[in-house]
Amino acid sequence: MENFLKKIDYNNIPNHVAVIMDGNGRWAEKRGKLRTYGYEYAITSVKETLIASQILKIPYITLYVFSSENWKRPKKELDYLINLFTFKLESYLEEINKKNIKTIVIGNIKKFPTILQKVLLSLIETTKNNTSGTLVLALSYSSKDEILRATKNIAKKIYNKQFNIEDINYSFFQKHLYTKNLPDVDLIIRTSGEKRISNFLLWQSAYAELYFTNIFWPDFRRKDFFEAIISFQKRKRRFGKIK
Ligand code: IPE
Ligand code: IPE
Ligand code: MG
Q: How far apart are alpha carbons 120 and 141 in whole angstroms?
């Protein structure tokens, strides 16, 4: 662990890291268990990731917890996941608050049962003044939906003559996304060996670095997070320029 920490450049810490926590079902199946067994173990990896990002003082960390497309999974799995989100978030609220982490949620949470929506709102409300990093939970999230929703809201405002077409620029558009108060993503980490973005933060990660690891999410530990950061720090980010 010490070795990993020694390799980190504390002057080049990414501002916003987003994680696609993939491979829970396959991790469980590999052990001859039901897919849901993997979700129980996923929680340790979430905690490890939060500890690691607090050690490095990363200001924003976004976790892809549940995509809009995930609604197409079997009802049994959905019921299990919704229960897990509800009870785990409720029981970790105090822990998150004690760590002084502010939590926000992006996605169409109205699709969840009221009880989960209430837990989420109370998590957001309780932690809203916390100052030691922001945890963003992407729940029932689809980047394409987010962009369409922003476009419709902007169209309405133009139609109602609140704004002119000329007012639409990057910053104006960005203010209509779920992520309106968040900086762009610097690094996306995806576990489980899949190399795709799966409808995650398409606008926000226009210039993000991508890091893929074969580790399944339930096996992901803080050292793996540090490794991703070390890899990020070796990248030359040019943003289209030469130097
Ligand atoms: C990602 O893990 C978490 C959710 C979608 C809730 P998966 O459930 O996709 O696990 P694999 O990819 O099938 O192994
Ligand atoms: C992406 O994983 C969504 C989350 C990790 C929450 P999926 O397992 O749903 O993505 P695909 O279907 O393999 O692209
Ligand atoms: Mg998956």
A: 14
Q: Is 199 one of the catalytic residues?
A: no
Ligand 1 in contact with 24 (CB < 6 A)?
Answer: yes
Write the pLDDT tens digit of every residue in 132-143: 999 999 999 999
**Out of 11, 22, 97, 199, which one is annotated catalytic?**
22
Q: Quick one: pLDDT at residue 119?
A: 98
Token pair belonging to 190: 């995806």
22 alpha carbon – ligand 2 mean position (Å): 6
Domain that holds residue 98: 11-142+186-233
Question: Whole-structure pTM over 0.85, yes or no?
Answer: yes
pLDDT of 161-180, one tens digit each? Answer: 999 999 999 999 999 999 99
Decide if 178 is inside a domain: no
Q: Label residue 93 by pLDDT band (50, 70, 90).
A: very high
Average pLDDT for residues 225-233, to the nearest whole number? 98
CATH code of 63's domain? 3.40.1180.10
- Contacts within 8 Å (CB) and 24+ apart, 206-213: 207/237, 207/239, 208/18, 208/184, 209/235, 209/237, 211/187, 213/189
